[in-house]
């Protein structure tokens, strides 16, 4: 060993050459690279389509929500008008009190149809009492 250093190597001794060889070994075949690019383009197109569809859905949802609010407001106005008319009729009927017409007024305020009643409580006994009093009023 005369001061000369011998390197044992299985490949190139230059550092840059070793890196380039690793790069070549790790580089993908042309078909895989081409597939990756096509897949990337396809995914970008799908993303763009989904963003476009999401924007359309948002616009549609906003429009439907505005229509719903308009319908609700219209319903509310109709209900208010109906309630005002019913209140005026009730007040005018309350002012016209004649003796002996109490049960007729009570009967007007009660719903005697058991199927149209939307109450959760059972009011059949009260209904039957009111009907019997309407047919045969109490005599004092």
UniProtKB/TrEMBL annotation:
Gene Ontology process terms (BP): clathrin-dependent endocytosis; intracellular protein transport
Coiled coil: 36-89
Pfam families: Clathrin_lg_ch
GO cellular component, one term: postsynaptic endocytic zone cytoplasmic component
Membrane-related topology note: Peripheral membrane protein
Family membership noted in the UniProt record: Belongs to the clathrin light chain family.
Main function: Clathrin is the major protein of the polyhedral coat of coated pits and vesicles.
Name by which UniProt lists this protein: Clathrin light chain
Species of the source: Chrysolophus pictus
């Amino acid at each position: 060993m005369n001061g000369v250093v011998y390197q044992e190597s299985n490949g190139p001794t230059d550092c840059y050459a070793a890196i380039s060889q690793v790069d070549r070994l790790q580089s993908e075949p042309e078909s895989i690279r081409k597939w990756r690019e096509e897949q990337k383009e396809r995914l970008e197109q799908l993303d763009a389509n989904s963003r476009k569809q999401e924007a359309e859905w948002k616009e549609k949802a906003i429009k439907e929500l505005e229509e719903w609010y308009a319908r609700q407001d219209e319903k509310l106005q109709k209900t208010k008008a109906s309630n005002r008319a019913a209140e005026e009729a009730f007040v005018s009927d309350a002012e016209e009190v004649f003796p002996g017409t109490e049960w007729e007024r009570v009967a007007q305020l009660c719903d005697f149809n058991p199927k149209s009643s939307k109450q959760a409580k059972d009011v059949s006994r009260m209904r039957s009492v009111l009907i019997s009093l309407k047919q045969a009023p109490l005599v004092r």
